[in-house]
Amino acid sequence: MRFSDYMNDWLYGAEGYYASYRPIGKKGDFYTAVSTSKFFGGTIANHIIKRLDEGFLRPDSLICEIGAHHGYLLADIIEFLHTLRPQLLQTLRFGILERFENLRTAQKSYFDESFGNAVMLEHYSDLSELDEEVTFFIANEIFDAFPCELFYKGKIGRVEHHEIVFDLEDSKISELAAKYKQDRGEIA
Question: Is pTM beyond 0.70 here?
């Protein structure tokens, strides 16, 4: 079995990492900038405002986080938008792309506690559900959440007896490796 198949199962299978709600933060499995400060969200809010001012985004755009876990990052962005330009909360829409119902429930609960009826959270379980003119995606964990192939000098890794063996070939992966001048590493 290819490494990416294992990785997909490890991340999203019935018992996968993202299939259950795990603690993330300083006392959890890992933490990122979102776990340490609201200012990461503030930086993104400032970027969104600049893109709106430039006309790149429209005031009725959907701001959508992929892989939001608890929803802290999107909530931080909303808090800073409210502080920097409160009228945007009347026009922008906010959503989370989340495939697991238990995480959607936790996210909705957090948003209800944080914002009450002031901010409506939209949920999507798949990108195919989105039919938007303009969407601004946020994905703090995007590179950690996609299955990838392990690549080493022209060969793809697979798992055999709990060991990684590099003996598979895939022309598409080799083309990507060549394009980005990569002879080893992870290729999504």
Answer: no
